[in-house]
Amino acid sequence: MDPRFDDADEAFRREVAGWLVRELGGEFAELVDAGGPGREHEHVEARKAWERRLGRDGWIGLGWPEADGGRGLSWQRQVIFHEEYARAGAPGRVGHIGEQLLGPTLLMFGTPGQKAHFLPGILDGTQLWCQGYSEPGAGSDLAAVSTRAELRADGWHVDGQKVWTSLATEADRCFVLARTEPGSTRHRGLSYLLVPMRQPGVDVRPIVQLTGTSEFNEVFFDDARAPAEDVVGAPGEGWKVAMGTLAVERGVSTFGQQMGFAREFERVLAAARAGGAADDPVIADRLLDSWMQLQVLRHTAVMTLGAPAGSTPGTEANVAKLMWAPWHRRLGELAVDVLGAAGTVTAGPEVDELTPAQRLYLFTRADTIYGGSDEVQRTVIAQRMLGLPRGPA
Amino acid sequence: MDALFGDEQRDLQRTVRDLLTREDPGPAVWQRLCGELGLTGITVGERHGGAGATTVELGIVLAELGRALTPVPFLQTAVAATVLDRSDAPPAAEVLPALVAGGLVAGLATPAPPTRWPTGSGPALTGVLDNVVDGPHLDLLLTPAVVDGAAVLVAVRTDAPGVTRTTLPTLDRSRPQARFALRGAPAVEIGDAASASRATDLLLAAVAVESAGAARFCLDTTLAHLRTREQFGRPLGTFQALQHRCADLAVLVESAWATARHAMWAADADPAGAAVSAPLAKAYCADAFRTVAGEMIQLHGGIGFTWEHPAHRYFKRATSTDLLFGGRAWVRSVVAERAGLPAVR
Ligand SMILES: Cc1cc2nc3c(=O)[nH]c(=O)nc-3n(C[C@H](O)[C@H](O)[C@H](O)COP(=O)(O)OP(=O)(O)OC[C@H]3O[C@@H](n4cnc5c(N)ncnc54)[C@H](O)[C@@H]3O)c2cc1C
Q: Which residue segments constitute the domains of chain B, with CATH numbers given?
């Protein structure tokens, strides 16, 4: 039983589940459990087709206002969609950066013209986006970005370098945080630009990850162009826009993520039973801890993320991230530990031929880094939620 | 069914917090809690003179009592009253009005594992119930027992012949304990095996939510200290090493509160789910509370090691919470068993 949903919601759940079973049973069967953070390289072409199928059948932009092409569904229904999506093992989305980051940003800060121009391509799954925030000199300290852009008569001219840009090889456009006021520092003088990726001034170079695969890239801008009107918010106000994106995320996708975690846990448990590790009291204890913590994650999300906006300090997402990222990493450790020596043998001789347990083990090392590292989350929680004073700069 | 924290719950929280900060802990508080606010009967149906609320509201009250560490036998009495009210066994009508008015103190023993349950034939019960929380105050003792070969939930009057009570000196002075030796003590059956297990689950959930409230107080007090205490020419709270530790504590406090509240919600609304979420909440919240209370001592430095400072009272309450009510290992083994996970012992 669940305190969040009523009978009509549960009927919607059956509709979602039915659609997923149908679609993943046929031409998209190879996509079950593919993709996801750190694994964006998997089955990219098929996942692009999947994105268009989602769009065609109206599963993108569920919570967006109907006036903007969304379905205006309740928070509960969005949660249900994400839960069923994960329960079915549907693939990691290639369109999530557009749907979950750029779309909400445009809904909040975009002009009617920008919304009309960019939202349809996200909603029908044909336009993919990537996020151009991090730079070699600006990671946790995002306000240190130094990519420059200048507005001339023929539009924006962009120069600089981004790094760790996920899906940049696939994306049609990139939202770029760039310094547009020469001589400005920190949070001032930044603008949020929408830059086409397929143009001579943009060079994308894949970076090989410790997994032997490559999802993120270096992106070089050498006199790259963007139309003058493709700046979100006022020029110079880009920091506010970039931060606003983070605030819109009320965590509906968290529940889907937890459903996926539950599937992963079940596989680790099954492996522990099959190989006999479950009889080891230390392993049994770790399995219990992992399972309990997963329930705690869920209860915490149910109790805090469902609260009406404005009724809470707004740091729930930080608390959630600082709970799930280390949890997931520990699950990855458990996944190889239950296999013992066998956990060290790969599925084949190529560097990227990892077993599922090894993939979980290695890919979860990224969870505590991207999207605000654990350390950054702790600082945000301490200062914004707990009100502890900032130290000397 | 309002599991989320709404305005009414906030009002209740404020009322109880005001009372507990205004009054000196003593007999007067007990009188106000029962008589004036009727809180021992908060979950009891109106036909028995209660307020007819759910276990969610009871959880709000318990968290405040945990916060203040008020030494009253409230948790036990309110849990017993809820158990009796939901059981609808004949003794309920008889004792509930007195429980609601505060004229009778009741509580539940948690002899775990079941091999420690008292046994009996007919109404005469024999066995030893050790470490019964609030034992010195109890007029009515509920316990799981094996009567004529069947697991049941029974009630025993503590002044009955055949009941010997020994008060135990306790590390946690805010939570007294007693040992009850039963030799042919008269017992009344109030429920079957399932009600016995539900009663224990409710007690575990109640203890969890009390712990969550107490843990939050420990964090709040620690944060206040770190904001004002200066060393090296600046407030301690500006040091990142301490900020990050506090953030970890905040995660524990928030997640314990959510987990405990969920368990209190499930107690009335989702009995099947409560069988897992109650022991899980007890195990998690007691552990979290112990961690936060320990950090409270550490982050206060020398003052945190004094008798005068409240930190040690919370530390000791956290310890007793973790080790009592069946204890940590037993509660964890119950979670593993009910969740279908490999046995942990
Ligand atoms: C798989 C993956 C995908 C990514 N995808 C994208 C993407 O699509 N677009 C994008 O823009 N970025 C992306 N990133 C980048 C990510 O946002 C950054 O890696 C992250 O913000 C950390 O920055 P950094 O790598 O420069 O590390 P640094 O900031 O140099 O941090 C190094 C270490 O120091 C710690 N640290 C830093 N500052 C402090 C401080 N003040 N106090 C205490 N500790 C501190 C960090 O926690 C970390 O442990 C991705 C990263 C990964 C791993």
A: 7-101 (1.10.540.10), 106-192 (2.40.110.10), 195-338 (1.20.140.10)
B239-264 pLDDT per residue, tens: 999 999 999 999 999 999 999 999 99
Q: Where are the alpha helices (DSSP H) in A224-371?
A: 238-248, 252-275, 281-305, 316-337, 356-363
Does the annotation mark A66 as catalytic?
no
* Domain ranges within chain A, ordered by starting residue: 7-94, 129-245, 250-385
Q: For residue A162, which atom of ligand 1 is closest to its CA?
A: 11
Q: How many residues does chain B have?
A: 345
pLDDT tens, position by position, B180-232: 999 999 999 999 999 999 999 999 999 999 999 999 999 999 999 999 999 99
Query: What is the number of residues in chain A?
Result: 393
Which chain A residues in 278-297 lie under 8 Å from chain B, judged by CB atoms?
278-279, 281, 283-285, 287-288, 291-292, 295-297
Copy the structure tokens of residue A188: 């001032």
Contact A224, A157 (CB under 8 A): yes
Integer Cα distance of B66 and B214 in angstroms: 4
Which of A9, A299, A311, A315 has the most B C-beta neighbours within 10 Å, making it the best mutation to test the interface with B?
A299
Measured between CB atoms, which of A285, A300, A377 is closest to B344?
A285
* Domain A250-385 falls under CATH 3.40.630.30: no
pLDDT in tens, A378-391: 999 999 999 999 98
What is the tens place of the pLDDT at every residue in B6-17? 788 999 999 999
Task: Say if the Cβ atoms of B244 and A382 lie within 8 Å.
Answer: yes
What value of ipTM does the predicted structure carry?
0.95
Q: Per the residue annotation, which of A150, A181, A218, A249 is the catalytic one?
A: A249
Does ligand 1 lie within 6 Å of residue A38's CB atom? Answer: yes
Q: Which residues, including other chains, have CB under 8 Å from residue A328's CB and lie 6 or more apart?
A: A261, A364, A367
Domain A129-245, CATH homologous superfamily name and number:
Butyryl-CoA Dehydrogenase, subunit A, domain 2 (2.40.110.10)
CB A159 within 8 A of CB A221: yes
Kindly state the percentage of chain A with pLDDT values over 70. 95
Token pair 């920091």 is found at A239
Q: Which tokens in the block code for residue B104?
A: 């009778």
Per CATH, which fold does A7-94 belong to? Butyryl-Coa Dehydrogenase, subunit A; domain 1 (1.10.540)
Q: Which of A36, A11, A24, A86 is nearest to A254 (CA)?
A: A86
